Amino acid sequence: MNIIAAFPDGFDQVTINGLHQWDWGRQLEIHDASLPAVVEVHFACQGMTDAVVRSCAVVDGVTTAAIPDVCIAQTTPIVAWVVEVGETSSETIRTITLPIIARTRPEPSATIPTSISDRYTEAIAAMNTAVEQIENGGIVSA
After folding, report:
1. Rounded to the nearest 5°, which phi and psi values hold at 130?
2. pLDDT value of position 137
3. Are 41 and 28 in contact (CB under 8 A)?
4. Rounded distance, CA 101 to CA 30, Å?
């Protein structure tokens, strides 16, 4: 499930709750019709000297950026800056604070070969697509 950040009129900073520590592979979905066609989202948490940068396309006022797993392993809030990038300059246009809900670290899992892990990830994605099609009244093709 994506973490959704929407900006009310006149606001350029929001705090979005609901992100748990150790929940790897999470996505930040930013809803803002005033965003330019391409933005960067810079992620950082306390102790980082360099932000993790994600370049993102904006489609119909929505952009999605992968939240760095290194940040989700922390208990300090993640800050995501939405940056408009031009040919000769850049400007931070939105700021999103993502507090982390601390939890006990899960035990390390055994290393799974990439070939198996990739097939598992593809199967989950296909299942999610099929469920979405069914929920939207569509027909699932084999």
Report:
1. -65, -45
2. 74
3. yes
4. 20
